[in-house]
Amino acid sequence: MEHYFTNNQNLKSELRDISCVFNEQEFLFKSDNGVFSKNRIDYASLFLVKTFFAFNKKSFNSILDVGCGYGFIGIVLSKTLNKHVDMIDINKRAVHLAKMNITNNQVDANAWESNVYESVLKKYDLIITNPPIRAGKKVVLEILKGGLERLNESGEVWFVISKDQGAKSIIKELEKVSTVTILDKSKGFWVINAKN
């Protein structure tokens, strides 16, 4: 079984287009085999972005999208907020697609390969992620707790997680080191905000 957080150089490429409208702006994404939610915009990612714009009242100057896939979250945030967004993923093909989609959607963003935060050299006001649950709880906590360590003062981590895939135990772990708020719930997904 191939996972979207592994790199399989032998996986056949079959590029496809995914279009969506968000906030009355049109987006077009190139997707491919071997990346997360290759045929459609993932419901949880869309719910995360919608919830962010519904509940966030702050202005973030530096933004990092962790596990960006082909770039949906980071690109929509960049265009809608008119801000630069950095994007990272462990999957080489996802990063390649994210770079194409940054160009095609004409946003101010940058994507590069990183295993969690290995190649991240600075801190951010906002770290946002739909973490790869199938990579296991240890990796998810590395992303979320590691994100809290890479925040500027008064920075925030925003993420989406399925109630059935360990949301409560993840929240318990995060509450040991941060203030956690469940912002909204839909179809078994929770959007959560964590801050130091």
Notes on the structure:
This protein has 196 residues and is of the alpha/beta class. It has a single domain (16-157), classed as Rossmann fold (3-Layer(aba) Sandwich), CATH 3.40.50.150. The protein has five helices and nine strands. The chain has helices spanning 43-55, 72-81, 92-104, 137-149, 167-175, and strands at 16-22, 25-31, 63-66, 85-89, 109-113, 124-129, 151-162, 179-186, 189-195. The strands form two sheets. It has a seven-stranded mixed sheet with strand order 5-4-3-6-7-9-8, with helices on both faces. It has a two-stranded antiparallel sheet with strand order 1-2. It is globular. The mean pLDDT is 93.
Quickly give the CATH architecture: 3-Layer(aba) Sandwich
Estimated share of beta-strand residues: 25-35%
Overall, the morphology is globular
- What is the straight-line distance between the termini? 37 Å
- Give the helix tally: 5
Strand adjacency order, main sheet: 5-4-3-6-7-9-8
- By secondary-structure content and strand pairing, the structural class works out as alpha/beta
Global Rg: 15 Å
Mean pLDDT: 93
Short description:
The protein is of the alpha/beta class. The chain is built from five helices and nine strands.
